[in-house]
Amino acid sequence: MLLKQRVAAVLSAASCVTALSAAAPHAVAAPVSGAAASVASCNFTIWTAGKPYVTGNIVKYTNGQYYRATHDNPGYDPVISTWYWEPYNCGGGTNPSGDFVVSEAQFNQMFPNRNRFYTYNGLKAALSAYPGFTKTGNDTIKKREAAAFLANVGHETGGLVHIVEQDTNNYPHYCDPNRPYGCPAGQAAYYGRGPIQLSWNYNYKAAGDALGIDLLHNPNLVQNDAAVAWKTGIWYWMTQRGPGSMTPHDAIVNDRGFGETIRSINGSMECNGANPGQVQSRINSYQKFTQILGTSTGGNLSC
Predict the structure, then answer these.
(1) Is residue 198 situated within a structural domain?
(2) What is the CATH number of the domain that holds 278?
(3) What is the distance between the alpha carbons of residues 24 and 7, in angstroms, rounded to a whole number?
(4) 156 included as an active-site residue
(5) Which positions make up the signal peptide (predicted)?
(6) pLDDT tens digits along 106-157
(7) Which residue among 86, 104, 145, 156 is the active-site one?
(8) pTM > 0.85
(9) Kindly report the CA angle at 61 between 34 and 27, in degrees rounded to 5?
(10) Is residue 54 part of a domain?
């Protein structure tokens, strides 16, 4: 069910420094092995925002990870613009979020009919925005959090099928012109987008301000860039209480149960007996996903 009053939001914009084309030296004095070889093969300069790159360039991003340009671009952020960049395993270095508790095979098993927009690589790229997401607590808690997040966003999007709100009649209603910043992208520009639906001009403004991206003027980023879309969902999960009393992240890591995540996401419309069918649908997905990840559900499944 798509929500009409929910914040969800984007991404943290990155910072920067320079890149280098991947040309090999013409001569090498002697073979290098082991740790020294890894260091030598990773001698790439740091990415710089706004500096043009061509396909094949490899850069070191500000998080210490490496990325290779998959398309020419004018210095787009590797963590945001995942169509233009891909993680690069440099000399044994790790890819960003390479220890994600959900493998690509498990993700595909969870969402066999998903829209191709919701990519696994986009999700992994989004994890860098909130290092505590699925990395807090023991292995059981980490897997529970991943399962809970994916169960809820799967429910919100019909199994990761829908990118935008389906009822287009609602689109013109999501603009409050009385806000001092108005609706610069247009009256009907702030409809629900992403895995946890972001709607209303003031929500796009709040989300963009929090994460360093101008979503108020560029709301389409949420439906055009997979990493941005995923980051909006993770941002809500990690920072927003919604109609609940805690963030969904806190609900899982503090062992308050899956039911509290439902309350924080759509509790006013589903919990306390308001819509038991929708609640049960979320629970069913959560139980399935925890089973796929090989962990237990914990208690307090319902709200």
Answers:
(1) yes
(2) 1.10.530.10
(3) 47
(4) yes
(5) 1-29
(6) 999 999 999 999 999 999 988 988 888 998 889 999 999 999 999 999 999 9
(7) 156
(8) no
(9) 45
(10) no
In a domain, 188, yes or no: yes
Name the one residue in this structure whose structure tokens are 């629900």: 192
pLDDT of 42 reads: 66
Q: Which residues of the chain have pLDDT under 50?
A: 1-41, 91-97
The answer to whether 110 and 249 have CB atoms below 8 angstroms apart is no
Return the residue matching tokens 């493998």. Answer: 103
CA dist., res. 119 & res. 160, Å (int): 10
What is the rounded radius of gyration, in angstroms, for the C-alpha atoms of the chain? 21
Instruction: Give the per-residue pLDDT at 19.
Output: 30
- Locate the DSSP E strands across the chain: 58-60, 66-69, 85-88
Q: What is the pLDDT of residue 147?
A: 98
Q: What is the full DSSP assignment across 258-279? A: HHHHHHHHHHHHHTTTT-HHHH
Examine residue 137 and state whether it is found in any structural domain, yes or no: yes
Q: What is the pLDDT of residue 179?
A: 97
Helix (H, G, I), strand (E, B) or coil at 212: coil
Token digits of residue 138? 């023991």
Q: Do the Cβ atoms of 62 and 14 come closer than 8 Å?
A: yes
Residue type, 122: G
Domains of the chain: total: 1
